[in-house]
Write a structure and sequence with these properties.
The structure holds two protein chains of two kinds. Chain A is an alpha/beta fold. Chain A contains twelve helices and nine strands. Chain B is mainly beta. Chain B has three helices and 15 strands. In chain B, the strands form three sheets. A six-stranded mixed beta sheet of chain B has the order 5-7-9-11-14-15, with no helix packed on it. Chain B has a five-stranded mixed beta sheet with strand order 6-8-10-12-13, with no helix packed on it. In chain B, strands 1-2-3-4 form a four-stranded mixed beta sheet. Classes of the chains: A alpha/beta, B mainly beta. Chains A and B meet through α7, α9 and β9 of A and β15 of B.
Chain lengths: ~270, ~220
């Protein structure tokens, strides 16, 4: 029996689809049987990132509406034996599927696969509710920006009220140079607010854009830092204990001194 | 609040006022209403009775269902829906909760995240953090055993004597009674020690919390 993991964020554009494609590919690289489910009906992207868009015949809505069998809609990846994609419909919208139907679908898929990764749409409406309906676990993707962290926080609350406890956090697109200068929220700030376990940190990497446009997940690029980070995330999902990539974020002497002085000051709002 | 009744009847000068608790579903409300009317059948017989419903916000459908239910047993003089205010079926609603020294208190374990609201007619203690976008509204004091980054409104009924205490006080906005304040613009100073906020001469002030000082 496989695990169903939803990859979600609340905010759009933080890298849910990229994360889904890369974690899935990395898991398949380790010999696992994996299916990627694109739950973003009407705005499908996962097929493009995987480079499989021209192979789509049937989609998720067809399966749910019993236009075709599940097996017919699953697209086998061109690179890996055990990796499959269930694409979203592009000409329908989120109301084409109900949470119950998604639950049934996930239960069917978990019979066949070790990992079912669901690419959740942005937002907290119907599409989100559908995407999390069948999930056992969740990975919350955020970027180190206040707005994205705020949305991630909301999502963690909503997941908990839907009985998906202890989601794990992926901090995407971290820029080491900016963190060092103190211009970007660092990992500790983010975790401090969200209070959940870290699944991985993915550094900002130009190669992600290149690989996404080419339809080749970046984990296949051995030189890419982001690719390595996704591989580590996949290993952690499989239960391996891999330390988070060491990032040097020492605050400067002046900043520390300033903080020391500010403490103890009486503050009037 | 769930040990309160979903519906509370109260005699007022010109009829009966019926408080509907916001914490209950419409089925619970209709069930309790039916039970109570059945029990007081005799009482309701005879002359025309004016009914005023107050408390939980009801949809048009729910209002219709209530009208149908009560009109079966009661000879209605008039029926009014004065709703939308959050009312816990407090049989003796006070002007505002002023139990600064003592009074009912709600304990919440866990983090209050963005989009979550804790609202209570008493003191509130959060055993966890309050994140940005989360809101705590209490008619009494607010104590956060963690970091307060969201919005907190103590003394929400208009009680300026209420206080807000947190292990780390970094609110997006702070309200006490009728006073509203926000942190100064510019660089945020993270306090690494507990602080207390209260109103002094009409201004909201924050001080390090000193146990031996009490305030």
């Amino acid at each position: 029996m496989g695990e169903v993991i939803v990859i979600t964020s609340g905010k759009g554009g933080v890298g849910k689809t990229t994360a889904t494609a890369n974690i899935g590919t990395a898991l398949a690289l380790s010999g696992k049987r994996v299916v990627l489910v694109d739950a973003d009906i009407g705005l499908r992207n996962l097929d493009v990132v995987m480079g499989l868009e021209n192979r789509i015949v049937y989609d998720l809505v067809d399966v749910v509406e019993k236009v075709c069998r599940l097996k017919q809609a699953l697209i086998r990846d061109k690179r890996f034996e055990g990796l499959y994609l269930l694409p979203a419909a592009q000409t329908k919208d989120k109301t084409a599927v109900s949470p119950q139907q998604m639950q049934e679908l996930c239960n069917q898929l978990r019979e066949e696969f070790d990992y079912v990764l669901i690419d959740c749409p942005a937002g907290i409406e119907q599409g989100f509710k559908n995407a999390i309906a069948g999930a056992d676990k969740a990975a919350v993707v955020t970027v180190p920006e206040v707005s994205a962290v705020r949305d991630a926080d909301r999502i963690i609350g909503l997941l908990a009220s839907n009985d998906i406890m202890d989601p794990r956090l992926i901090i995407n697109r971290l820029r080491l140079d900016m963190v060092k200068r103190g211009d970007m929220m660092d990992i500790d700030d983010t975790i401090d607010i969200l209070g959940i376990d870290l699944l991985g940190v993915v550094p900002d990497d130009e190669r992600v854009v290149v690989s996404t446009n080419r339809g080749e997940p970046v984990v296949l690029d051995d030189d890419s830092l982001a690719g390595r980070a996704y591989k580590n995330i996949a290993k952690r999902l499989m239960g391996e204990d891999i330390p988070i990539m060491e990032l040097n974020t020492d605050e400067g002497f002046l900043a520390r001194l300033k903080r020391l002085f500010n403490a103890g000051k009486k503050r009037a709002l | 609040m769930m040990n309160h009744d979903a519906v509370v009847f109260k005699g007022v000068r010109n009829g009966i006022k019926i408080y509907i608790d916001s914490d209950y579903s419409s089925e619970d409300i209709l069930d309790t209403l039916k039970r109570k009317i059945e029990a007081g059948k005799r009482f309701f017989q005879g002359s025309e009775i004016n009914l005023t419903f107050t408390g939980k916000k009801l949809t048009a459908g729910e209002q219709q269902a209530i009208i149908e239910l009560v009109s079966r047993e009661i000879n209605i003089g008039s029926i009014t829906f004065d709703i939308g205010k959050t009312v816990y079926s407090d049989p003796e609603p006070v002007e505002f909760f002023d139990g600064i020294e003592e009074g009912i208190t709600r304990f919440v374990r866990g983090t209050i995240r963005s989009g979550q609201l804790v609202s209570y007619r008493g003191n509130v203690v959060i055993i966890g953090d309050v994140n940005p976008g989360g809101e705590i509204i209490a008619e009494g004091n607010i104590v956060v055993m963690g970091t307060l980054r969201g919005m907190a409104h103590a003394g929400a009924g208009g009680n300026n004597k209420a206080v807000v205490v947190a292990f780390s006080l970094q609110p997006t906005q702070l309200r006490i009674g009728t006073v509203i304040a926000r942190p100064p613009e510019g660089e945020v100073v993270k306090a690494l020690y507990p602080e207390i906020a209260y109103v002094r001469d009409g201004n909201l002030v924050i001080e390090p919390y000193l146990p031996n000082k009490g305030r």
